[in-house]
Request: fold
Amino acid sequence: ECVVHNGGCSHQCVNTEGSRYCTCKPGYQVPHDDPNKCEDIDECDDNSSPCSHECINSLGSFYCICPIGFRMKNDKMTCEDINECLADDLGGCSHICHNTLGSFICDCPEGYVLVGNQTCADINAFLISMKEDALMIVKTLLVALYVPVPKDML
Reply:
C-alpha cells in the first residue's frame, strides 16, 4: 500500500499485512482529523516548554534563548546567570562588583561615592566638585537675571 504515492502519507508510510499507516518525522505528529498528514509539534506550547527561559518553536523542532545577563548551558535548554564580576574588569566597576541574577551592581569602599553606575570617586573630591558645579550654576543664573555676582563668589 505504501508503494504508490507513499500510501497517501505526507511523511512516512509503514506497510502492515493488508494495510498501512502513516508516521511522522521527529518533531511532527499525526493530527486527529487526518491520519495521512503530519503537523508540527509546538514544543513551546503551554507549560510544557523544555526551555528554562524563552522557547522558540520552529518547523519540526525548537530552540531556546536566554535573556541578557544569562548564557546557554551545554544542554541548549537551560540558561545560567553570567557572573559579570568574574571578568577581568569587574563588569566595568572601578572598585567593587556584586553579582545579581541577570545583572550586577557596582559599589564603592568607605570614603568613596558611586558616580554614575560604575565609577567610584573620592567623596571629598566629589563634594568639592559638586560645590564648584553648584557655584557655577548660581553664577550663571545671576548673570542671566542681570544680578551682580557677589565678589566672594568670583
DSSP finds one helix and twelve strands in the chain. Residues 9 and 36 are 5 Å apart (CA to CA).
